[in-house]
């Protein structure tokens, strides 16, 4: 109610605050359940993969080496969750039976180098190695000797192996898949997990044939499957009646449209819950999911910009400057000119125009730039390049970038030379 002066009285403001607080029923029962690394008790729609994986590793319970295994599928299709689930159960069974089995899970992307992968494996076996200082070969020898002394069957899970192979080649896999030839008392089996379906193209044929003794493919989930997965999780994650059916279905549908990614679906659900919570709404509805989608997209763009290499950042920044003066898009030649000037100002050697063209294409496929081929009638065709994201967003990200900050409000000198810009 407004007072005589037309201003909302202090009393009314507080009424509002208290009312909101009291009526604000909790949304989450346990939001941790929606995090990526939470391992659920049940993994619906992966029964077949669980069975295949189980059958592959089962021989170790009878003291026989299990086949090497290659698992692949896009992100969020449950590869990590299923593998950890099966191995945990195997561990329990092996203990019951007293089978000499050990296993070690390594995320290769996080480990970052072959040395670190071997270091994790050594640590798991209780073989000590220094943090640095040994050659990769020496670490491998210590690992092999340590392993053999234990007389066990060792299952090595190398998750996100594609990341390591693309950066460092397949030497690690080569060594590991050949190890049984030199081991006397112990045996190894390798489970490689790849998010990239083209992993095979990066592998030496010998490594490939030995690693893929067995193969399991994880197909993307469809909307119905994602809905079931979310439904099971939501029971533990949300308070009763705090999640509408419409919101749940929308999360599943949006994630299915992307590439059947359960991780994406869980993110949408969690962020939608947070949006509802912040607004003081007691239940998550479709509008909260829509807002969550925007939040996630916004963060994805910021992350992508931050993680670009210096030259890609300079290309985006050049397009930013050009789009400011001409919104219809810039041609590669102009981008190259501004880019060259920025490189010169920074004292870094510029890439060739051809290489810059490749970067533009990469940035286009990442959704940061938009490169469109336009017909110029009898003058042939040309490519017009625009920013695909808000210029203010790119500016904000680069403004906080140590090396680039001062170029955000920079006025390229070549602009004054080229009136057509
Ligand atoms: P990937 O390793 O293939 O990228 P993850 O195994 O990490 O995928 O799965 C992503 C997220 O989705 C995890 O939180 C995981 O628990 C969940 N998830 C994936 N598949 C299922 C499923 N079938 N049932 C329940 N949760 C699942
Ligand atoms: Mg994974």
How do the helices and strands line up, and which of them pair or pack?
Elements: H1 10-23, H2 47-57, E1 69-73, H3 79-97, E2 101-107, H4 108-111, H5 114-125, H6 136-150, E3 153-159, H7 161-168, H8 171-178, E4 187-194, H9 205-211, E5 214-218, H10 223-237, H11 245-258, H12 262-279, H13 286-306, H14 310-325, H15 332-346, H16 353-365, E6 369-375, E7 381-387, H17 391-399, H18 413-417
Parallel strand pairs: 1-4, 1-5, 2-3, 3-4
Antiparallel strand pairs: 6-7
Helix pairs in contact: 2-3, 5-6, 8-9, 10-11, 11-12, 11-13, 12-13, 14-15, 14-16, 14-17
Magnesium ion is lined by residues 79-80, 159.
The number of distinct β-strands equals 7
Distinct bound molecules? adenosine-5'-diphosphate, magnesium ion
Structural class: alpha/beta
Distance between the termini: 56 Å
CATH superfamily of the largest domain: P-loop containing nucleotide triphosphate hydrolases
- For the record, the count of structural domains works out to 3
**Largest sheet: spatial strand order:** 2-3-4-1-5
Overall pLDDT metric = 90
């Amino acid at each position: 109610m407004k007072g005589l002066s037309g201003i909302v009285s202090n009393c009314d403001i507080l009424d509002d605050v208290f009312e909101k607080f009291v009526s604000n029923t909790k949304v989450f029962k346990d939001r941790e359940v929606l995090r990526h690394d939470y391992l659920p008790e049940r993994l619906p729609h992966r029964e077949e993969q669980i069975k295949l994986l189980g059958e592959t590793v089962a021989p170790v319970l009878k003291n026989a080496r299990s086949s090497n295994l290659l698992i692949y599928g896009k992100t969020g299709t449950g590869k990590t969750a299923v593998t950890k689930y099966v191995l945990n159960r195997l561990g329990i069974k092996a203990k019951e039976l007293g089978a000499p089995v050990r296993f070690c899970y390594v995320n290769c992307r996080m480990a970052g180098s072959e040395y670190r992968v071997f270091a994790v494996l050594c640590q798991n076996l209780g073989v000590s190695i220094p943090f640095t200082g040994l050659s990769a070969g020496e670490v491998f020898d210590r690992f092999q000797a340590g392993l053999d002394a234990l007389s066990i069957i060792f299952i090595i899970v190398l998750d996100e192996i594609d990341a390591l192979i693309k950066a460092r080649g397949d030497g690690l896999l080569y060594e590991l898949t050949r190890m049984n030839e030199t081991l006397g008392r112990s045996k190894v089996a390798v489970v490689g997990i790849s998010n990239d379906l083209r992993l095979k193209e990066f592998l030496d044929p010998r490594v490939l044939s030995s690693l893929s003794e067995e193969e399991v493919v994880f197909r993307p989930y469809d909307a119905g499957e994602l809905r079931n997965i979310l439904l099971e999780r939501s029971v533990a994650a949300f308070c009763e009646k705090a999640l509408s059916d419409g919101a749940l279905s929308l999360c599943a549908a949006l994630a299915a449209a992307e590439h059947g990614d359960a991780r994406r679906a869980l993110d949408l659900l969690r962020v939608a819950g947070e949006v509802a919570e912040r607004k003081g709404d007691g239940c998550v509805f479709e509008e909260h999911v829509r807002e969550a989608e925007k939040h996630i997209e916004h963060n994805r763009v910021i992350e992508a910009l931050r993680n670009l290499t210096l030259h890609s950042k300079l290309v985006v920044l050049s397009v930013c400057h050009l789009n400011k003066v001409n919104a219809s898009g810039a041609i590669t030649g102009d981008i190259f000119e501004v880019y060259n000037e920025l490189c010169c100002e920074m004292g870094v050697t510029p890439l060739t125009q051809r290489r810059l063209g490749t970067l533009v294409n990469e940035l286009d496929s990442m959704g940061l730039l938009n490169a469109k081929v336009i017909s110029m009638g009898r003058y042939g065709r040309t490519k017009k390049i625009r920013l695909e994201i808000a210029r203010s967003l790119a500016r904000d990200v680069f403004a906080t970038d140590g090396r680039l900050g001062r170029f955000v409000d920079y006025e390229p000198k070549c602009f004054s030379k080229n009136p057509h810009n």
